[in-house]
């Protein structure tokens, strides 16, 4: 009969273990999600250019338009931010 109660006791402590597992790992911020979305857009655009010679961003906003240039600049800034984030994550924690 003691084995019947053991799983319920274990379940009672799950939130505590989850909280302990989260310590030391920070969740992604809004900036991280925006950078990831921009990198995905940029990567898919480059895939379309490489595979089909179609620049989707230029097709949507017009070749050389300010909106197209803005998207390209934002994707580049997202890439630089991701380099910073990767370097920050690779540093040993004290």
Average pLDDT reading: 84
The number of helical elements comes to 5
- C-alpha termini separation: 46 Å
Global morphology: elongated
Could you describe the largest sheet, including whether it forms a barrel? none
Helicity, as a percent range: over 70%
H-E string: HHHHH
Strand content: under 5%
Work out the number of β strands.
Answer: 0
Global Rg? 22 Å
Topology, element by element:
Blueprint: H1 2-12, H2 14-22, H3 30-52, H4 56-61, H5 66-90
Helix pairs in contact: 3-5
Write a brief structural summary:
The longest helix has 25 residues, at 66-90. The chain has helices spanning 2-12, 14-22, 30-52, 56-61, 66-90. Helices cover 79% and strands 0% of the residues.
Fill in the keyword field for this structure.
elongated; 0% strand
3D architecture notes:
This protein is mostly helical. The chain has a domain at 27-90. Helices cover 79% and strands 0% of the residues. The protein has helices at 2-12, 14-22, 30-52, 56-61, 66-90. The longest helix has 25 residues, at 66-90. The chain is elongated and about 50 Å long. The termini are far apart.
């Amino acid at each position: 009969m003691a084995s019947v109660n053991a799983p319920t006791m274990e379940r009672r402590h799950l939130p505590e273990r989850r909280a302990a597992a989260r310590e030391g790992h920070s969740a992604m911020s809004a900036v991280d999600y925006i950078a990831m979305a921009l990198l995905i857009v940029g990567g898919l655009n480059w895939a379309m250019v490489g595979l089909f010679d179609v620049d989707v961003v230029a097709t949507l906003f017009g070749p050389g338009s300010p909106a197209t240039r803005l998207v390209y600049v934002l994707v580049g800034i997202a890439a630089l931010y991701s380099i910073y984030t990767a370097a920050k994550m690779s540093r040993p924690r004290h």
